[in-house]
Amino acid sequence: MNLKYSNAILIEDDVIWGKIIIKIIASYCEKITYYRNKKEAHSMLTSSNSKFDLSIADIRLEENDYKNSDGLFILEELKKQERVSRPIVITNFPNDDYYKRVSKINGILLEKGDFTEQEFLDILSIK
């Protein structure tokens, strides 16, 4: 198997979407670290200095809090620490503020359900 990524991070609170993303990227990643909530992901910020060559996060990590952007915040912090190189942000609710913030970290913003598996792989430049 020809692996393209050695260390990927996925931050996603929705178990179904977590499984979908892992299924898509698993064949192309040597290691995937999966965090399901803000607390887990935030503890990684302070307890580890791992670098990730692929990073994917849901913007909102609490289903009932429509104003939170915890997943994007975690990626912004990892980018400041130069620990991520390919930030991909996914959401059900894209807006101009999210596009601006994702652009500042040279990331890509995708709307959930608005891409196919092949389109996702193309974005990752995995053939």
In words, what does this structure look like?
With 127 residues, the chain is α/β, with parallel strands linked by helices. It has five helices and five strands. Helix 2 (38-47) runs parallel beside helix 3 (70-80). The radius of gyration is 13 Å and the shape is globular. 28% of the residues are buried.
How many alpha or pi helices? 5
Main β-sheet: number of strands, strand sense, barrel status?
5 strands, parallel
Strand order of the largest sheet: 2-1-3-4-5
- The whole-angstrom Rg is 13 Å
Percent in strands: 15-25%
How much helicity do the residues have? Answer: 25-40%
SSE run: EHEHEHEHEH
The total strand number stands at: 5
User: How is the quaternary structure best described?
Assistant: single chain
Poorly predicted sequence stretches spanning 5 or more consecutive residues? none
- Rounded to the nearest angstrom, the distance between the terminal CA atoms is 13 Å
- Let me know the average pLDDT: 91
Helix/strand/pairing category? alpha/beta
Sequence-ordered SSE layout with sheet pairings:
Blueprint: E1 8-11, H1 15-25, E2 32-35, H2 38-47, E3 54-58, H3 70-80, E4 87-91, H4 96-104, E5 108-111, H5 117-123
Parallel strand pairs: 1-2, 1-3, 3-4, 4-5
Helix pairs in contact: 2-3
Task: Explain briefly what this protein structure is.
By secondary structure, the protein is an alpha/beta fold. The protein has helices at 15-25, 38-47, 70-80, 96-104, 117-123; strands at residues 8-11, 32-35, 54-58, 87-91, 108-111.
